[in-house]
Amino acid sequence: MKKNKLLCLIIFQFLFFEISFSANDENIYQKIDLFSEVLDKINKEYVEEVNQSETMDAAINGVLQSLDPYSSYLTPEMLKEMRTETSGEFGGLGIEVSMEAGVVKVISPIDDSPASKVGVKAGDYIVKINDVQVQGKSLTEAVELMRGPIGSKIEITVRRIGEKKAITFEIIRDIIKIASVKSKIIDDVGYLRLTSFNENSSNQIKEKIKKFKNEEKINKFILDLRNNPGGLLSQAIKIADFFLDDGEIVSTKSRKSSENRKWFAKKGDLIDGKTLVVLINYGSASASEIVAGALKDHKRAVLVGEDTYGKGSVQSIIPLQNEGAIRLTISKYYLPSGKSISEVGVSPDIRIDESSDEFRINTKTDNQLEFAVKLLSG
To answer: What is the DSSP letter of 340?
Structure first.
């Protein structure tokens, strides 16, 4: 037990070392001793035997999630899965989530994923996973509960704004294959649907535009970023650059001014200045907001839909000695106008709410898309 207490003390001295200096808290080491005492009491008195390794993982994750909803601890297994996700194929339900008020919040369901097919929506709060209440659990713990073998069933219960009763979904876990770009021709409009920003997204967009340009009748474009939870910053910059000739795309501001950065567009608009409409909604987050915000600020596109999610922070994956990592917020995004995306999002030029009576979306008709096509035709 003494060995365990010493190990805990060393770990938390490491975790809080920089915090003690930044906060100038003279009592920080007393807090570390207090934590060691609490852990000792749990090991001795808790009703069931405690897995000390899992307890420490939860404690580390708790420190990170006390900072913001997007910082977290990644075990070696979780880090491996995250790398698989950004490569374009992985297993699960197909939802991007964060933690808000102690409950898991859906940022966005991925197109054609098991979650989207049963009706899970951006903004849903997951309150129960199978028979387990989510309240009080960390995001990592909740995500672990949602993991399972491909083909296995899971039941999630959500609370949705505007609905009096909780909604329960039965979902079958599956391989999530992300073909991040879909396209089609609607009359004389080239339609591009971008579902995520993974390693191949910009190349896919470029190829689709190249094919469109071989069609003489296409002279207008729609870029659909609805329910796109984001992804790689590098891809957001490349894709925004495709539609701009010059000017700032996005900037980041960090704790250290020396690490502040700005990215600018290079000459060359892939669609040669042709009319562009961008579709956005509450499920458009992070990288989606960078692209939409840059195109709006430069008056390069008309934004149609709803306010975006408002995830305007940059997370860096910092490796650890155990082959895991921490996902840590290191800076915030700012649009060319100087406005922050964080907790504000990007507003559309023309608001078409999914829930409005005039433009209600049902299972057969996408009224936001129809409005955009009519806008371009008019």
So the answer is: B
Domain boundaries, the chain: 2-72, 90-176, 178-377
Longest dimension (CA), the chain: 76
**Coil vs helix vs strand at 125:** strand
Which ranges constitute the DSSP H helices of 139-256? 139-146, 201-213, 233-242
Residue that is written with structure tokens 């600018």 in the block: 264
pLDDT by residue, tens only, the chain of 378 residues: 444 444 444 444 444 444 444 444 567 888 888 988 998 899 899 998 888 888 888 888 889 989 998 899 998 888 887 776 665 555 689 888 888 877 899 988 888 889 999 999 999 999 999 989 988 888 878 888 888 888 899 999 999 998 999 999 999 999 877 678 999 999 899 999 999 898 889 999 999 999 998 887 899 999 999 999 998 999 999 999 999 999 999 999 999 888 899 999 999 999 999 999 999 999 999 999 999 999 999 999 999 999 999 998 988 899 999 999 999 999 999 999 999 998 899 999 999 987 544 433 344 468 899 999 999 987
The β-bridge partners of 181 are 194
Using alpha carbons only, give the angle 235, 236, 239 rounded to the nearest 5 degrees. Answer: 80
Q: Give pTM, 2 decimals.
A: 0.70
Token readout for 142 is 């909740």
Residue 254 region by backbone torsions, left for phi larger than 0, else alpha for psi between -120 and 50, else beta: beta
- 211 phi and psi, to 5 degrees? -65, -40
CATH number for the domain running over 90-176: 2.30.42.10
Residue 185 host element (H or E): strand 181-186
The set of catalytic residues is: 286, 297, 311
Task: Provide the CATH number for the domain formed by 178-377 in this structure.
Answer: 3.90.226.10
The number of angstroms, rounded, from the C-alpha of 243 to the middle of its chain's C-alpha atoms is 23
**Burial (0-12, 13-18, 19+ Cβ within 10 Å), 174:** middle
* Radius of gyration (C-alpha) of the chain in whole angstroms: 23
CA dist 148 and 92 (Å) reads 7
Helix (H) or strand (E) holding 73: strand 72-74
